[in-house]
Amino acid sequence: MNSRMIAWGLAGVLLGAAARGQTELEITASGNGTLEWTYPTNVGSTSFRVEWAPQAGGPWAGFSNLPAQLDSIAPTGTTMSAEVPTFYRVLATAPMHNPLVTFVIDDYEGDAPGDVLDVFRTPSLGPLNSVAWYEGHGERTAVVTNGLDGQAALLTVPPATALDYIAYLGATNVPAAYLLTWDMEFAEVNGGGGMFFVRFSRADGNGMQVLFGFLDDGRIIRFFDEPSYETFVEVGTFEAGTRYRTYFIYDLASATFSVLFDGQWIVDHAAIPALFKMDGITQFGFDLNQTLGLPGQPGLGNTYLVDNVRFGLLNGPH
Q1: Any residues with CB less than 8 A from the CB of 233 and at least 6 apart, and which?
Q2: Which of 32, 137, 250, 280 would give a disulfide with 172, using CB separation of 3.0 to 4.6 Å?
C-alpha cells in the first residue's frame, strides 16, 4: 500500500481538538520504519501527531490505538523522528464467520465487572442463567474484566486446582454440523502439564468428556479415544500473550470434528470417538485443569482470557 504520512504540529491547548492551529510539517526522511521531520521554532507546537491515508489527498487517520503513542509526541529538538508501522499481512480466517443459527453468544458485554465464579449467568444470546464458570476445585478465580473485545473472563487457575465452564443450550438439538468459536489468550507457556480443553457430553450419560485442547507447554492436542496419556495426537502449537480464535466444527451427522486455528486446519474431519453422545447435543463446555498434569510435567498454574464464546448450526460446507 502506498500511503503518505504527515507530522502535524498541534498548537497550545488545541491538542487534537480542531483543525485551527495545526501546521503541516515537511517529512525530511523516511525509511526502515522511521519518519524524520524538522521542527521550526515559529510553529510553537507542544506536541505532534503522525497520521496516515490510503492516498495523498486523504482521508487522514491517526494511530491512537498503537502503543507507540503516535498521536501525541512531545518536542525533543528541531529535528525529530518517530517509528511507524511499515509491514502488513493478510490472514485467511474461517470460511464461516457466523453460524447459520446461533444458540449462544457469551461475550461478557452485559456483565458487571467482578467475580463470576459459581454464578450462572444469562449470556448475550442464550437461555436464562445458562452459562457459568463453576465446579472444579481449589482457590481458582473467574472475573469479568477489561480485555480482548471490551470485556472478557479472566481465569486464574493455580497449581493443583481446576475450573469448568458449562453452556446449556436449552433444548436437545438434532445430529447436525455445529460451529463453536471462542477467543482466548494464555498468560504463559510454562512447560507445565496444565490443560485448557473443550468438552462434550458422553454417550453413557456420565457427564462430559474432553476432546481437544491446549497444554501449558505450548502444544495443541486432540484425543482419538478415552482420554489418557496414550490416546492424544499433537496437532499444533501456540504462544503466550497472543490472542487466538478457535473455530471448532462438531459434526454429529458425520461423526467427525475439524478445527481451524491461526489460519490453519489443524484437525480435518477426525473421527469423534464413540464415547461421545452423537444423537443430539444439549450442552458444551471447557475444562481447565492444573491437577492432572502429564508424566514428568505437573501443572504449574496459568491465567487465561476468554471471550466471544459462540455456538450454533454451521453455515455452509466444511
Answers
A1: 221, 222, 223, 224
A2: 280
